[in-house]
Amino acid sequence: MALKPKLKIRIGSRPSRLALAQASIVRERLAANVSAEIEIIEIRTSGDKMTSASLADVGGKGLFIKELEQALADRSIDLAVHSMKDLPAVLPADFRVAAVLERENTADILVTRDGAALSALAAGARLGTSSSRRRWQALRVNRGLEIVPLRGNVDTRLARMADGSFDAIIIAMAGVKRLGRVKDVKFVELDERDFIPAAAQGALAIETLAGREADAMDDALSAINDAHAFYETAAERAFLAAIGASCTTPVGVRARIVGDTLALATMLFSADGARELSDSLVESLAAGFAPDGAESSGKRLAEKVLARGAAAILGT
Q1: Which residue has the higher pLDDT, 181 or 61?
Q2: May I ask the CATH architecture of the domain 108-189?
């Protein structure tokens, strides 16, 4: 009897240290659930090549996934690993989110030289961020800040903070933790009541081609999928889609499952920060974690904010 060939899984990843660390997490989880030869293939994306331009001006965070999706379409990789907040709210029909790993801490953190609170920063303090959401959330707490654009990977941003270019920066806790750099920085975790994070922040998404025949890889992906994270992020992304938001829209949305209850909260701003709107809803999960239920919850929160003028605020 001929031996069945060993399963081969090719994981596509951006070449940054954080992206490769995240791809390695996925490889380790898969290896624990399937006997396979698993390879990480580095793919440099358009977003990686643009180190200074504003993402909002050149196409948004979708620039970080275009080449990875092309590699999926060409079948030169079997799956792609993304920081899920980089994914557009609606994927092209040829692709799907096949699994979401257990979610990391979703909070934003304020990194300073002495661990100061945001409200304690002096007037004129230089705060680094290129996120319009973080910009307006920070200015709600401390109007005296000077917001200075800051791009680059986590290591680059922390280096710019260390060399004195900034008095403070805001970054996601998840990336700092995955790089093992928590002990390298002084920070405070920002209160989610003021800093509702980006949709899917802290989540790793595994993207594959849609419509492909199920195989051992799909069984392994199912085994490493976290039902709570999958449901929460589906609700958040459905909310974004329903309000017509892009990856650069100044909006935060967070879904949280506690017991048999889903709580959804959002905070959004106009492009100039002059107007803002917050809202929330709490719903029962009696029907379980069906994806269409998550999407329905996201759409219901969207209906609430749209009824209160969200489209005019966002300019959508």
Answers
A1: 181
A2: 3-Layer(aba) Sandwich (3.40)
